[in-house]
Amino acid sequence: MPWSRIATDQNEPEFFRENELPGRRITYAEAIREGLRQALALDERVFVMGQGVDDPSGMFGATRNLHQEFGRDRVFDTPLAETALTGIAVGAAMAGQRPVYFHNRPDFLYLAMDQIVNHAAKWSYMFGGAVNVPLVLWACIGRGWGSAAQHSQANQGMFMHAPGLKLVMPSTCYDAKGLMLAAIKDPNPVLIIEHRFNFKQKGLVPEEMYTVPLGKGVVRRPGKDVTVVGVSHLAMDAFHAAQELAAESGIDAEVIDPRTLRPLDEELILESVRKTGRLVVADTGWKTGGVTAEIAAMVAEKAFKYLRAPIKRVAAPDLPTPSGHTLESAYYIGQPDIKKAMIEVMAE
Amino acid sequence: MNIVAKTRRDMLFSMLRIRRVQERIEADYMQDRMKTPVHLCVGQEAIAAGVCATLRRDDSIQSNHRSHGHYLAKGGNLPALIAELHCRSTGCSKGYGGSMHVVDVSVGHLGTSSIVGGGIPIGTGIGLAFQMQKSDKVSVIFFGDGAADEGVLYESLNYAMLKKLPVVFVLEDNHWAVCSPRSTRQVADNVFLKGAAKDLLFAAKIDGNDAALVYQTAKKAVDRARKGQGPSFIVCDTYRILGHAGCKAQDPAGYRDTCEIDAWACKCPVDTFRAACLADGTVDQALLDEWERDIASEIEAAFRFALESPLPGPQDLHKHLFSE
Ligand SMILES: Cc1ncc(C[n+]2csc(CCOP(=O)(O)OP(=O)(O)O)c2C)c(N)n1
User: Is A7 within the bounds of a domain?
Assistant: First the structure.
């Protein structure tokens, strides 16, 4: 699959940055890998597991060659037994280890749904806080080249529904590292869902260890006319759409990247909507009962009187992903759809 | 058990045809016209061909991401397969599925999952339906050693034994799951070879590159299933000659020993069986030459058909989510 031939690495755009440490430019995969490497070196309870973490591609580069440095006791391949291995990671986490379990696609997490939702997410609550599960799960959404219905699902909506699970969707190299370290540090189960498109980016990343707090979103572009919430790589698409719109018609959009969907930084979104009175929410997952539905409902509940136009959602159609490239291009949403939605809410 | 000459000829033809189709896909892949992640089965043809030679058209198979050989051996339509790889509306899945999701209901092929192990319980359920319908049809499930890591294999086998279902589980042990050797995933031979009582499960481990042996073993299993005597589990030792996905140029270097690949290439199932068939007079060189010409023109026609076929468009996107 010539993923690498589809587009070359690109520098992240010059978006608004606040409270970020200075860094040097590295790739998205290098950023995650650096975070993992530092966590493995700092804390001997941390270990990395997953199908192919030690193979030549090393999870698109995120885990490449870590087994050489830390040994196969701490960075190891697993059988294709997602159900049991998730439970095994849960057990190891309860008993004092800090597992980071990698999957190259979130589609395979469905095999582990029982251990994730029935067990990991409930354990602390079910026993009155007696036992916690410091587990990190990681998976990367695929897209394109006929990945089709079972290898390209953006299923964050399913996981956002489950209380007791933290859900992270980074969009920059800086956050990919900082959120990985925050997830490992967190005493609870945390699911990080990445997107293959992010892996084409290069961004500014500090060499030292740092965490990006779970539950804190970020403004990628301040603006006053319309709020756009963009999840994962759609934060970048929203940023580009906003820049285009500003240049073409002077519409000044505020772009918010929530970074974590659970806990969700509600206040950041509400504060922006109170200012702009208009909201577009963009997510790579399905529309019905998904992330855009949740964010739109939250704003309708908590900031209805500030809204000057109906909320617009930009999300994947309620369909499995088709494989053919012509169907794929009809299926996927991105920058043009976000721009169109912004124009529409501005016209209301 | 002697295999009649016609069956031997059909098997050899089937293997050759699968091989030539794979080679053509491989050769064309870098052109980027097949925008789908292909998983080629070069080196494993004897299993698909040998097992399917024991089946009737109305028997069923479940396959996996490495789907082309099973599909063709069961009698799946070649132009529809090639059109599917080219994302065309004339493809077997009308361009919605791609290489990992092929189907041909007319030959008992009810669709393919790309979730490893996904077809195992489904094939078991097809066996349950056959039993409920009081038919003597058989359900065969092809899966890899990677799928044998999944717990669902245990659950399905247990159920098939419990209900004496007409199901044949065919494990194609090609030693690798992507870049993971079996030794990092399994400790020894699969437990089912030693675990279950003979009357519950017919189990065998065989050389999966020996087409005649595959046929003979599958025949026992299929006959047993047809007579309502229950499931079988056949482990076929084989090897994936090409990379996990894509073409040769896309197989990453370094994860497996090139000597290992060379050694298995010497045990090529197609070469071995062709030589045996020539030696015992099942075929002669003239027939082989004729077959090669026929296969080449059939493949040429299938690719032409695919490239001349229409692509689906936005108007098709919302079709087929539900059956009308
Ligand atoms: C449940 C699940 N886990 C992981 C994957 C990714 N994956 C696709 S094919 C494959 C290897 C499968 O190995 P095997 O079953 O032996 O079949 P082979 O590719 O060797 O023919 C893996 C890990 C998947 N598709 N489904």
Answer: no
